[in-house]
Amino acid sequence: MHSDPNIMTKTTRDTENKDRLDNGHYVEDTGNHFVYILNKDYEPIETALITMKSTQRKKSKLWNSMINSKRMKDAQGFFVPATWMTVYKLTTNKESNGNNSWWGWNVEFDRFLDKSEDGDTRQMTEDLWKFTKSSDIFGKIQFDPKDEKTIDQIPTAKIETSKDDISQFRS
Predict the structure, then answer these.
(1) Beta carbons of 59 and 127 less than 8 angstroms apart
(2) Which residues partner with 122 through β-bridges?
(3) Number of domains comprising the chain
């Protein structure tokens, strides 16, 4: 994390496609998503930080666009719900280009936490949002005001894995 919002203007792209500062250090553009992992009954089982960089950065931006485009309707009309009221399903798939292959994220909207039985989950995800907003990361970083929507709210994620997915994390 870097506290200078203009840091990318001070970098030069090198032959490895890394954004380098004059001192040789590189700056990695990374999307960070604080989430709750839910079980099959949509109950929170743990918190997680999902980082998306490099080839996954576009997916992070797409996820943020999905978050900001969701609408709910009440008696007063349509509104953008807090993202801690939304559930996204994350899965992995193998991706490749001509030379390399890697595991990448698939992100899809699952549902809103708007059922009466979702009350406890909504409260826990809202509490995580409040905690994250007050944590050190948000006190040390100066965010661009236009990004306020994406840092103010935290989506929940339902992550599905298979034995094949898990094997990629073993040494």
Answers:
(1) no
(2) none
(3) 1
Beta bridge partners of 104: 93
Question: Does residue 156 fall inside a structural domain?
Answer: yes
pTM: 0.68
Pick from 144, 42, 27, 28: nearest CA to 88 = 42
pLDDT in tens, 34-72: 888 999 988 888 888 899 988 888 999 999 999 999 999
Q: Once rounded to an integer, what is the mean pLDDT over residues 152-160?
A: 50
What are 124-130's contacts with CB under 8 Å, separation 24+?
A: 124/36, 124/44, 125/36, 125/44, 125/84, 125/85, 125/154, 125/156, 126/82, 126/84, 128/34, 128/36, 128/47, 128/84, 128/154, 129/82, 129/84, 129/153, 129/154
Tell whether 97 is covered by a domain.
yes
Residue 7 within a domain: no
